[in-house]
Amino acid sequence: MNNQDLVDDPNSVKDLGILISNDLSARAHCNYIAKKALRVVNLILHSFFSGNVTLLTRAYKTFARPILEYGSSVWNPHYVSDINTVEKVQKYFTRRVLHSSTCCRIPYATRLEILDLENLELRRLRSDLSIV
């Protein structure tokens, strides 16, 4: 699967790495970056055989999170479904990383605290406020 396979909708155009649809909604871009970042997350999880949570988190922050945050002031989603689509990638990563070291399910907010990560919606809001 290459990038062109992800962008086959004739009603959207990709400019500077951001998908812009005819109705100017963020749905197509959210789906696009979620798929792309999920591939990177799976690559990270399968590439590092170490169970070192700090190493995996640093790799996530370096390689996957920038995909989810690039140009967020342009495409910042307002619909809950789009916000959840983007956030689902980080939820998946935190669940997979901490599942190997613990036996029970940990709530998402607690996983973020353990891994020293922030909610992506909060990071986008902070980024938008710093631009203004």
Distance between the termini: 38 Å
In helices, the fraction of residues equals 55-70%
Radius of gyration, in Å, reads 15 Å
- Mean pLDDT across residues: 87
Tell me the total number of β-strands: 2
State the secondary-structure class: mainly alpha
Structural domain tally: 1
Shape: globular
Tally of individual helices: 7
Q: In order across it, which strands form the biggest sheet? A: 1-2
Which H/E pattern describes the elements? HEEHHHHHH
User: Which regions contain 5 or more consecutive residues with pLDDT less than 50?
Assistant: none
| Strand portion | 5-15%
Largest sheet: 2 strands, antiparallel
Protein name: Alkylated DNA repair protein AlkB homologue 8 N-terminal domain-containing protein
Describe the structure.
By secondary structure, this protein is mainly alpha-helical. The protein has one domain. It has seven helices and two strands. It has helices spanning 3-6, 27-47, 53-69, 72-75, 80-99, 108-115, 120-131; strands at residues 12-15, 18-21. A two-stranded antiparallel sheet has the order 1-2. A hairpin with a 2-residue loop joins strand 1 (12-15) and strand 2. The radius of gyration is 15 Å and the shape is globular. It comes from Micrurus spixii. This is Alkylated DNA repair protein AlkB homologue 8 N-terminal domain-containing protein.
